[in-house]
Write a structure and sequence with these properties.
Layout lengths: L2 E5 L2 E5 L1 H12 L4 H9 L2 E6 L3 H9 L5 E7 L3 E3 L4 H5 L9 E3 H5 L6 E12 L4 E6 L10 E5 L2 E4 L4 E2 L7 H4 L1 E2 L3 H18 L6 H7 L1 E5 L3 H21 L8 E6 L10 H14 L1 E5 L1 E6 L3 E6 L5 E5 L2 E4 L3 E2 L2 H9 L8 E3 L11 E3 L4 E3 L4 H12 L6 E3 H14 L1 H8 L4 H11 L5 E3 H12 L9 H16 L1 H6 L25 E6 L2 E6 L3 E5 H13 L4 H17 L7
Bound molecules: flavin-adenine dinucleotide (FAD).
The site of flavin-adenine dinucleotide has 33 residues, from α3, β4, α4, β7 and α17.
Family: Belongs to the NADH dehydrogenase family.
Main location: mitochondrion
Organism: Dorcoceras hygrometricum
């Protein structure tokens, strides 16, 4: 029979004829068949996670060249940008998820999926240890291990509580589909409790005070959704308590949506003020109990406590335990987040790649690297380079750090671009290294790491699959794209992020959008742009149909207030 054999921890898929040839040849001491088998065998690629990064990697991967296995504790992909809509029933949970097996079946059964959580990565023996996420009471083993040649870590991030006391026990999070469903039930619970006879007014106020910690895009969108849910639907079915409802957004910074353009941030603050949503900026949450949330005013240091019925904690992301443990093994234990290079390779570990929210391109050493490139080029230690040498050096820097090119091109960075125009001028024969480094150090402050968004994760996944599809070619050119100046660019360029803009839905059929080229758009027409972009970005026609159907249902019948 055709079968697989495992030798020296490598699985070889061979047909029966091959196996006999292998057995005969090894018995005779002839290693040629073994060598041939090794050469023809597929490399094992193991992917951790079925989120934006993992699925985008698998979507375009040429699986005929690899033996691919996928491990994830959930057997579906979730369209996270619509999670806030699930919390209030604008969109149903099943409409935003797509079964992984549905997506993988397009690969003609060449990708194997295991519904399990990876508990440990062992980079030395190149294997991972997993535990099945399926009901423990079912027959059979739960723990198993898998070996790999290439590991792609795309297991996202977890919520970050900043070790604030009481958060884990008393707050809701909005990260997974189950979180959104839980929030929906709790909102209804708060209303059902508030209408029970015999409650004091204070108790009704407390039960109907919804607090959101974090004024970033997710927190703001949830606050807006909740406001619409309450004012469009719930006040009609719970009219007796409509005056007791309160929504508060707590933000430690000075403004909500502070990663957006200033115009969007102030538009959102004004809209929330009109809608009666309290925005408490400059407040830091110190602890959360089952009934109150305790804060400190940043400016005065004053302690403030407010009662709550429900708190949603939405303040950024942290590293998952399995990634933290892996980081310690590879000497990245002191870092906050797993460092990768521009080719998405984990620093300090062969054949392991990481993408999406679980990793970030290490930019701490950017200026150090740039200095050493200059130092190597300045052979006579004169502190200057000829135009020709400078062009080479700049080419090298831009290839290694594409963000430098973006920076130099950016219209905000006049000093650097003026400087470059100056050095590229005809009459200038030499370039002063210190002057150029000074210009670059100005941009260093602005070259922040990439944001933790689905956009970045999906682009990284697509990029890595292209690299894997061209692996052979790249192996022949491990130095990467060195031919910047003379021979043209090599195909295997470092990952370059293309920002396509971002949305901030603000409720009441109004959305703000920041589009490429510094375009800002706000209001009802932008909401229609949001509908069309999000419908078009769905991963399948099935979910597209369901999501658009849910939106239409909401327009006609409103949202459902049953607690299921
Ligand atoms: P994820 O999508 O989180 O996927 C991680 C995968 O790894 C999951 O399948 C998980 O089950 C799996 N996994 C976890 N642990 C393990 C383990 N131990 N072993 C194996 N597998 C594991 N971004 C935008 O660009 N636009 C938006 O509008 C937007 N809105 C958002 C709204 C909300 C409510 C949230 C929570 C996020 C939003 N984001 C948005 C951010 C975006 O969802 C993330 O940046 C994106 O999901 C990151 O992709 P990822 O693949 O790295 O991680």
């Amino acid at each position: 029979k055709d079968r697989c054999i495992t030798k020296n921890k490598e699985t070889v898929k061979i047909h029966s004829g091959g196996l006999i040839a292998y057995a005969e040849s090894t018995a005779n001491g002839d290693r040629s068949v073994e060598k041939e088998l090794k050469e023809t065998q597929k490399k094992r690629v193991l992917v951790l996670g079925t989120g934006w990064a993992g699925i985008s990697f698998l979507k375009d991967l040429d699986v005929s060249s690899y033996d691919v296995q996928v491990v994830s504790p959930r057997n579906y992909f979730a369209f996270t940008p619509l999670l806030p809509s699930v919390t209030c029933g604008t969109v149903e949970a099943r409409s935003i998820v797509e079964p992984v097996r549905n997506m993988l079946k397009k690969k003609n059964g060449e990708v194997r999926f295991w519904e399990a959580e990876c508990l440990k990565i062992d980079p030395v023996s190149k294997q991972i240890f997993c535990r099945s996420s399926v009901d423990e009471n079912l027959a059979g083993n739960n723990d198993f291990s898998l070996e790999y040649d290439f590991l792609v870590i795309a297991c996202g991030a977890q919520v970050n509580t900043f070790n604030t006391p009481g958060v884990l026990e008393n707050c809701h999070f909005l990260k997974e589909v189950e979180d959104a469903q839980r929030i929906r039930r709790t909102v209804i619970d708060c209303f059902e409790k508030a209408v029970i006879p015999g409650l004091t007014d204070d108790e009704r106020w407390t039960n109907l005070h919804f607090v959101i910690v974090g004024g970033g895009p997710t927190g703001v969108e949830f606050a807006a959704e909740l406001h619409d849910f309450i004012h469009d639907d719930l006040v009609k079915v719970y009219p007796s308590v409509k005056d007791f409802v309160n929504i508060s957004v707590i933000q430690s910074g000075d403004h909500i949506l502070n990663t957006f353009d200033e115009r969007i941030s102030s538009f959102a603050e004004q809209k929330f003020q009109r809608d009666g949503i309290n925005v408490l900026t400059g407040h830091r949450v110190m602890s959360v109990s089952d009934r109150t949330i305790n804060m400190k005013k940043k400016v005065t240091g004053e302690d403030v406590s407010i009662p709550h019925g429900m708190v949603v904690w939405s303040t950024g992301v942290g590293t998952r335990p399995v990634v933290k443990d892996f980081m310690e093994q590879i000497g990245q234990g002191t870092r906050r987040i797993l460092a990768i290079d521009e080719w998405l390779r984990v620093k300090g570990c062969e054949d392991v790649y990481a993408l999406g929210d679980c990793a970030t391109v290490d930019q701490r050493k950017l200026m150090e690297d740039i200095s050493s490139i200059f130092k190597a080029a300045d052979k006579d230690n004169s502190g200057t380079l000829t135009m020709e040498e400078f062009e080479d050096v700049l080419g090298d820097i831009i290839i290694r750090y594409p963000q430098v090119e973006l920076y130099l091109k950016s219209k905000h960075l006049f000093e650097a671009t003026d400087f470059l125009q100056d050095v590229y001028g005809n009459d200038k024969k030499e370039v002063n290294i210190e002057e150029f480094k000074l210009a670059l150090s100005l941009c260093d402050k602005q070259m922040k790491s990439l944001p933790a968004t689905a956009q970045v994760a999906a682009q990284q996944g697509a990029y890595l699959s292209r690299c894997f599809n061209r692996r052979k070619k790249c192996e022949q050119h491990p130095e990467g794209p060195r031919k910047f100046r003379s021979g043209g660019r090599h195909e295997f360029l470092p990952f370059q992020y293309r920002h396509l803009g971002q949305f901030a839905p603000l409720g009441g059929e109004q959305t703000a959008a920041e589009l490429p080229g510094d375009w800002v758009s706000m209001g009802r027409s932008t909401q229609w742009l949001w509908y069309s972009v999000y419908a078009s970005k769905q991963v399948s026609w099935r979910t597209r149909f369901l999501v658009v159907g849910d939106w239409s249902r909401r327009f006609v019948f409103g949202r459902d207030s049953s607690r299921i």
